[in-house]
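Give me C-alpha cells for this 71-residue protein.
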Amino acid sequence: MSKTFSGKEVIKALRRFGYYIDHQKGSQVFMHNMNEKKSVVVPYHKEIKKGTLNNILKKTGLTIEKLKELI
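Here you go.
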C-alpha cells in the first residue's frame, strides 16, 4: 500500500459504495450504510494513516484495489 489516501478521497469512494454522510463532528465524518447496517468514521484529513485506513476497509468490506477503482 504505497499510495496514501486523503479523507476526501475515501469519503468519495464510500459514497459510491453505498454509504452516506450522516453528520460531522470536527474533522470526523460519520458515514452509514442502511442496507448493510454498518457505520464507519472517516477522518477528514489530508492523509489518512495506514492503520486507520485498514480499519475503515475492514469495517466496510472493501479491498484496497476496490477503493482505488471507486476514487
